[in-house]
Write a structure and sequence with these properties.
Keywords: Aminopeptidase, Hydrolase, Metal-binding, Protease. This is Aminopeptidase P family protein. It comes from Corallococcus caeni. The protein is of the alpha+beta class and about 600 residues long. It has 18 helices and 30 strands. Strands 4-3-2-1-5-6 form a six-stranded mixed β-sheet. It has a six-stranded mixed β-sheet with strand order 12-11-10-8-13-14. Strands 23-30-29-26 form a four-stranded antiparallel β-sheet. A hairpin with a 2-residue loop joins strand 29 and strand 30. Helix 15 runs antiparallel to helix 16. It is globular.
Length: about 600
């Protein structure tokens, strides 16, 4: 039996298990989101229920199962991947766009009969989504149950909670006591006496702790309850060493069992005013709050505070970018020398680049799964090569042709990196160079932006798209996401994307870091994305207020062999040459031999 048949058979068997539990529980449909009790982007194995049931490994999808139907709702980033991984499973790929009426909730409201039950685990369902789902399904007469975890009952070999130890982040420049004091001050402004936090990066940032419970992200499973005179950290037994526990207790942070968080919320004294963030807490935890407690809803103060990197944190970030850039230069030097001499696949690219990063000081792990995509594979923004399915870039004696896209990043104790470069493999076409140059112009356009402090970040998205729009072109993802300080590679509350809330929560402030990654994708042919991380920093003060600009943090040459100079303005050419001069100056001390030679060659003025 082939791999696809084996995977399809496994998914069919697991869907059958779900249906058996559904019959026993009198449930007409089960809804399986991609989520955990902390609403994380990357999930510990224990909560990869959607992946377990469907076999689909993408980072975002929603599974719906009824007695007769199973469907996986995915957006355009995952259509091809879902088609391939669901083959033989009996699960349909439901291709969603931004058009109304296409969500799984729309399907459930239209296809589940009035009076029947839809079950979803409220312990992993975001509060805001739970509210909208209840309203929509109730309007169709459908009953929503959030107190039943069908997946858990069907999943016999479900992984346990992760047990990786927690450690102090030595480079955190602000003491946890100061951070907690600032959070309490914000609580006071909102009239709250207590504040419950579940998002893992908020907990890690506030406590100056890091862990390894989630792939690629140095966080740990915990909830935090901030009180007037201290804070309670709900965390697994044995995860905090005794010496660190003593440090935390000295700072007013006491440790409690992970599974006692819900009971603690239910035991809060009457008259408590509890601050929760409805976008960052689950329905199940909100339901646990005692009846005599007044709930104040607002953005977690730590979410905003950690997005505004201090000068000391930005200095650490610059160090991380130098180490990361040096690793990339060493990799590209090998890559260009190996073309035509060694067998190179997309998997080889991932392995060699990861090895170069691992050699750099302060490296801890990758910050996400490396995307190494050759030619048509690069047209899928979230493509990932696997042992079962990957492309060969070249073989010895060959003269391959095409474009190789590499989107990768690292977690260093001094910062989190995320960078995308596209390089030519052999001869390229005028159309490829034109596409690359248009994307580059959009990236430069955003890099050079100056704007009033407090500008809402989604409003800047059009700057990166304008050169493409002028040619009738576009891309289907946001232009940028926030990035954490040795934390989440995708961090809120800000981001340069038209789908983000255009409100005060996404206002740009000094110290905020975002990715800058416009793209262009031609299905079946090639994909182009160029990405740097940029930080909002003070620019000038005028009679119209304080203005900000972006400092480009990422350091790696942009391949000028793919640039059509005739399409660049003088200002754009000057920006590119100045960027390369900075890259050369900053990276040269970290390189020697072939890596240094490659750097000098690829940073020559255009």
């Amino acid at each position: 039996m082939g791999l696809e048949q084996t995977q399809g058979a496994a998914a069919r068997e697991r869907i059958a298990r779900l249906r058996q539990v559904m019959r026993e529980r009198c449930v007409a449909a089960v809804w399986v989101p991609t989520s955990d009790p902390h609403l994380s982007t990357y999930l510990p194995g224990r909560w990869k229920g959607r992946e377990w049931a469907s076999g689909f490994t993408g980072s975002l999808a929603t599974l719906v199962v009824t007695a007769e139907y199973a469907g996986l709702w995915v957006d355009s980033r995952y259509w091809d991947q879902a088609d391939a991984q669901l083959k033989g499973s009996g699960i349909a790929t439901v291709r969603t766009t931004n058009a109304p009426g296409q969500s799984h909730l729309d399907w459930l409201a239209a296809n589940v009969q009035p009076g029947q039950v839809v079950a979803v685990d409220g312990a992993v369902l975001g509060l805001g989504l739970a509210r909208s789902a209840a309203t929509q399904l109730a309007a169709a007469g459908v009953v929503l149950r959030t107190d039943l975890d069908v997946v858990a009952e069907a999943w016999a070999d479900r992984p346990p909670l992760p047990a990786a130890p927690v450690y102090a982040h030595a480079l955190s420049p602000v003491p946890r006591t100061d951070k907690l004091r600032a959070v309490r001050a914000e609580m006071g402004v909102l009239g709250a006496t207590h504040h419950f936090i579940s998002t893992l990066d908020d907990v890690a940032w506030l406590t100056n702790l890091r862990g390894a419970d989630v792939d690629y992200i140095p966080v740990f499973l915990a909830h935090l309850l901030v009180e007037p005179g201290g804070a309670r950290l709900f965390i697994g037994a044995g995860k905090v060493p005794d010496a660190l526990r003593a440090e935390l207790e000295a700072d007013g942070v006491t440790l409690h069992p992970y599974d006692e968080a819900s009971r603690a919320l239910g035991a809060l004294p009457e008259g408590t005013r509890l601050l929760v963030d409805p976008r960052r807490i689950t329905h199940g935890l909100r339901q646990a709050v005692g009846k005599g407690v007044s709930v104040v809803e607002g953005l977690n103060p730590s979410t905003v505070a950690k997005s505004r990197k201090t000068d000391a944190e930005l200095a650490h970030f610059r160090n991380a970018m130098e180490q990361d850039g040096a690793a990339l230069c060493a990799f590209f030097a090998w890559f260009e020398s190996a073309l035509g001499r060694e067998p190179i696949t997309e998997l080889t690219v991932d392995e060699r680049l990861s090895a170069e990063r691992a050699r750099r000081p302060g490296f801890v792990s990758l910050s996400f799964s490396t995307i190494a995509a050759f030619n048509a594979n690069a047209a899928m923004p979230h493509y990932r090569a696997t042992q079962a399915s990957h492309a060969t870039v070249c073989l010895p004696g060959q003269q391959p042709r095409g474009l190789l896209l590499i989107d990768s990043g690292g977690q260093y104790t001094s910062g989190t990196t995320d960078i995308t470069r596209v390089v030519p493999v052999g001869e390229t076409t005028a159309e490829q160079r034109r596409d690359f140059t248009l994307v580059l112009r959009g990236m430069i356009n955003l890099s050079r932006a100056r704007f009033p402090r407090g500008t809402r970040s989604p409003n800047l998205d059009a700057l990166a798209r304008t050169p493409l729009w002028a040619e009738g072109l576009d891309y289907g993802h946001g232009t940028g996401h926030g990035v954490g300080f040795f934390l989440n590679v995708h961090e809120g509350p800000h981001g340069v994307s038209p789908t983000m809330p255009n409100d005060s929560t996404t206002a740009l402030e000094p110290g905020m870091i975002t990715s800058n990654e416009p793209g262009l994708y031609r299905p079946g042919r090639w994909g182009i994305r160029i990405e740097n991380l940029i930080a909002a920093v003070p620019d000038r003060k005028t009679e119209f207020g304080d203005f900000l600009r972006f400092e480009t943090l990422s350091l790696c040459p942009i391949d000028t062999r793919l640039v059509d100079p005739a399409l660049l303005s003088r200002e754009e050419t000057d920006w590119l040459n100045a960027y390369h001069a900075t890259v050369r100056e900053r990276l040269q001390p970290h390189l020697q031999g072939a890596g240094r030679d490659w750097l000098l060659q690829r940073t020559q003025p255009l």
